[in-house]
């Protein structure tokens, strides 16, 4: 990938299944250092779009370039090794320590290969990430005893261990209580300092879950684009009301968003 190339370039994309478009006429360009939010109601097509971005799916029509490589003309498995993916539903072997969970990111697997030993450089990277994610005191704790919040942070460290240029987050705050959610959002904000060139795309249904550092947003509903661009331009009450099919008022205080129903009761 060259310096001025987009990290992600989706052009006029459709994904069709059983004759039905799950996505249609979707376009977006994500550049290094941008933090995107991908918003929309249930069934909008967010996971389908994220699968395209993560080189896990080909478009039916249109073109997708990920890290400068066009899907369909590149080894998808190789490309995926350059993309970090945080999915709270990832399967992880319960007996692995936090440090080993992070190292599984090098193999994109639920477990470490038998008799495999990390290089010194890999160990140093994993320990540094464990520290950056605030998990040093839990580095030897087993996955099965971690809290949901600790798991969320371990999964981010795991996704970063290959030093990807693109990080995809699929509803990373799922199942977290308020404090754990806020800690995770702080961590995502700190990525701007830790890895300033890293581009991120985070799927969520909830505006409250957008880190204050979010730079851009893309809103879809029914597989179609409703808004896309810098977050201040893309998000407003009208767009969110149309996306979710309900009158909603959105507000922003200290960089964080909130949403409330604007429907009259009674
Ligand atoms: N392989 C498939 N074949 C047919 N339909 C599919 C397939 N995958 C997804 N769909 C449908 O496509 C639509 C979009 O699904 P997708 O999972 O991308 O939405 P989403 O925005 O991520 O939803 P949610 O917020 O509920 O996770 C849904 O109606 C879903 O049922």
UniProtKB/TrEMBL annotation:
Superkingdom classification of source: Bacteria
InterPro entries reported in the protein's UniProt record: AAA+_ATPase, ABC_transporter-like_ATP-bd, P-loop_NTPase
Pfam families: ABC_tran
Spans traversing the lipid bilayer: none
Entry annotated with the keyword Nucleotide-binding: yes
Molecular-function annotations in GO: ATP binding
Residue ranges annotated for the ABC transporter domain, each copy included: 8-247
Keywords: ATP-binding, Nucleotide-binding
Gene3D superfamilies named in the record: P-loop containing nucleotide triphosphate hydrolases
SMART domains: AAA
PANTHER family cross-referenced by the UniProt entry: SKFA PEPTIDE EXPORT ATP-BINDING PROTEIN SKFE
Protein's recorded name: ABC transporter ATP-binding protein
Lineage, highest ranks first: Bacteria, Bacillati, Actinomycetota, Actinomycetes, Mycobacteriales
């Amino acid at each position: 990938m060259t310096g001025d190339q987009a990290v992600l370039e989706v052009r006029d994309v459709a994904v069709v299944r059983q004759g039905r478009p799950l996505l249609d006429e979707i376009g977006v360009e994500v550049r290094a250092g941008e933090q995107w939010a991908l918003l929309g109601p249930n069934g909008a097509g967010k996971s389908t779009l994220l699968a395209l971005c993560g080189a896990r799916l080909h478009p039916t029509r249109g073109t997708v370039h990920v890290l400068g490589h066009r899907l369909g003309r590149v080894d998808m498995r190789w490309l995926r090794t350059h993309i970090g993916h945080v999915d709270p539903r990832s399967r992880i072997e319960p007996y692995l320590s936090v440090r080993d969970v992070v190292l599984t990111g090098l193999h994109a697997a639920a477990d470490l290969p038998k008799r495999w030993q990390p290089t010194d450089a890999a160990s140093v990277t994993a320990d540094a990430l464990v520290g950056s994610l605030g998990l040093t005191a839990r580095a030897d704790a087993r996955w099965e005893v971690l809290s949901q919040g600790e798991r969320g942070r371990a999964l981010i460290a795991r996704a970063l261990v290959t030093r990807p240029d693109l990080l995809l987050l699929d509803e990373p705050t799922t199942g977290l209580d308020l404090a754990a959610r806020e800690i995770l959002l702080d961590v995502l904000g700190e990525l701007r300092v830790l890895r300033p060139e890293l581009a991120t795309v985070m799927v969520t249904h909830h505006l409250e879950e957008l880190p204050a550092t979010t730079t851009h947003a893309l809103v879809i509903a029914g597989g179609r684009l409703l808004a896309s661009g810098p977050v201040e331009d893309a998000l407003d009450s009208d767009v969110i009301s149309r996306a979710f099919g309900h009158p909603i008022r959105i507000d922003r205080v200290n960089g964080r968003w909130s949403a409330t129903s604007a429907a009259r009761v009674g």
